[in-house]
Recover the amino acids of this structure.
């Protein structure tokens, strides 16, 4: 049986992304993302419930954030695609901790136009290094070409002396 581990989130960054560099040159980015659900309770009052998600990314996305080619800051609204990963580790007090993270494959800011901080706010980013094609508005107004109608040509029968040889050689 096939399975799928896919997460799509839209939320706000809870802090500035942090990038850690390892001895082998690999970079790891971590950040928290808040998603808020709004609903009405039984009495008709609006309620909000916020979930916090731990995001982690490796490779090109972490490198771009470290090099400030992508400048995401606390409060930015983000679109995130990735997968859920649960792991455990032993902390300094020898206590086993369990953590659930979103391993980010794609991350894009939805916070509007911040030209000085992010060169192309409409560009999506794939952590594998591929830029996703984005729709761009045409510079000129597109005008539908008008169909050109021609008079139909009457079919003609070959002449009496036609021998069926229409090849030039």
């Amino acid at each position: 049986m096939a399975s799928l581990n896919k997460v799509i989130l839209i939320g706000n960054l809870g802090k500035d992304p942090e990038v850690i560099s390892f001895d082998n040159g690999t970079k790891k980015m971590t950040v928290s993302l808040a998603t808020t659900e709004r609903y009405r309770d039984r009495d008709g009052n609006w309620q909000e419930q916020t979930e916090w998600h731990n995001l982690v990314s490796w490779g090109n996305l972490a490198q771009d954030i470290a090099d400030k080619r992508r400048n995401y800051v606390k409060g930015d609204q983000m679109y995130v695609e990735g997968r859920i990963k649960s792991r455990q580790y032993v902390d300094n007090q020898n206590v086993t901790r369990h953590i659930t993270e979103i391993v980010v494959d794609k991350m894009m800011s939805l916070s509007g136009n911040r030209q000085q901080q992010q060169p192309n706010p409409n560009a999506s980013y794939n952590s594998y290094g591929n830029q996703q094609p984005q729709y761009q508005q045409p510079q000129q107004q597109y005008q539908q070409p008008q169909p050109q109608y021609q008079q139909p040509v009457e079919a003609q029968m070959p002449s009496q002396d036609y021998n069926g040889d229409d090849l030039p050689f």
